[in-house]
């Protein structure tokens, strides 16, 4: 998601979990999305896992952004994708520069004890020109050279909120979820605030 200042925001923390020091910042909940799940989560390490599963997922996402698909030979079979992940059978994009290749090779390491940390990622050549203090302080602006954030126009899609749309879910239909009074007519979208 992109905020009104054009900066990326992480959303959808449905699987998020607070990790505590009394557990050495580890958990053992088995969850994740096929293709993005770290190998240690798939093999079920008895000692649990920690923040490095997110580093792995970031690497997979970066590969997907670079080449438009997950970095696995098999793209269709979830079991095969998991097997490739556990074996470290990752197909890096061909046409990437050395800084990008180095970053991905440090992130997509099967053994979490050998995987790079977020603090180490920030020091890699891939991010050489990023001023992390300015990022934290939200001081990045559209005049910062190549790092021009996308600034969405809040008025561009206002018309969408003023129209009504066909219902696309079965949840409002009679007999489903006990909603006998629901109709299949056009449902107005909520007004913007």
| Helix/strand class | mainly alpha
Query: Considering the protein shown, what is the CATH homologous superfamily of the largest domain?
Result: Transferase(Phosphotransferase) domain 1
Q: What is the makeup of the main sheet? A: 2 strands, antiparallel
Strand content: under 5%
CA-based gyration radius? 21 Å
Distance between the termini: 19 Å
- Total DSSP helices: 7
Principal-axis shape: globular
CATH architectural designation of the largest domain: Orthogonal Bundle
The residue-averaged pLDDT reads 74
Question: What labels describe this entry?
Answer:
193 residues, mainly alpha, Transferase(Phosphotransferase), domain 1, two-stranded antiparallel sheet, 2 strands
Could you walk me through the main structural features you see in this protein, from its secondary elements to its overall organization?
This protein has 193 residues and is mainly alpha-helical. It has 2 domains: 21-136, Transferase(Phosphotransferase) domain 1 (Transferase(Phosphotransferase), domain 1, Orthogonal Bundle); 158-188, no CATH class. It has 7 helices and 2 strands; from the N terminus they run H-H-H-H-H-H-H-E-E. The protein has a two-stranded antiparallel ribbon. The protein starts with 38 loop residues before the first helix and ends in a 5-residue tail after the last strand.
């Amino acid at each position: 998601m992109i905020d009104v200042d054009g900066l990326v925001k992480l959303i959808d923390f449905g699987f998020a979990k607070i990790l505590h020091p009394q557990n050495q910042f580890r958990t053992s909940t088995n969850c994740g999305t096929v293709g993005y799940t770290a190998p240690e989560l798939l093999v079920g390490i008895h000692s649990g896992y920690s923040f490095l599963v997110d580093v792995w997922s970031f690497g997979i996402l970066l590969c997907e952004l670079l080449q438009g698909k997950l970095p696995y030979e098999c793209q269709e079979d979830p079991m095969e994708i998991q097997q490739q992940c556990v074996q470290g059978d990752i197909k890096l994009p061909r046409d990437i520069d050395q800084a990008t290749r180095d970053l991905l090779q440090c992130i997509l390491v099967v053994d979490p004890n050998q995987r790079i940390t977020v603090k180490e990622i920030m020091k890699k050549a891939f991010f050489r020109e990023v001023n992390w203090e300015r990022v934290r302080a939200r001081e990045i602006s559209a005049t910062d050279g190549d790092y021009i954030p996308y600034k969405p126009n809040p008025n561009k899609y206002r018309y969408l909120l003023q129209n009504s749309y066909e219902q696309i879910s079965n949840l409002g239909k009679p007999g489903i979820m006990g909603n006998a009074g629901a109709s299949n007519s056009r449902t107005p979208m909520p007004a913007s605030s």
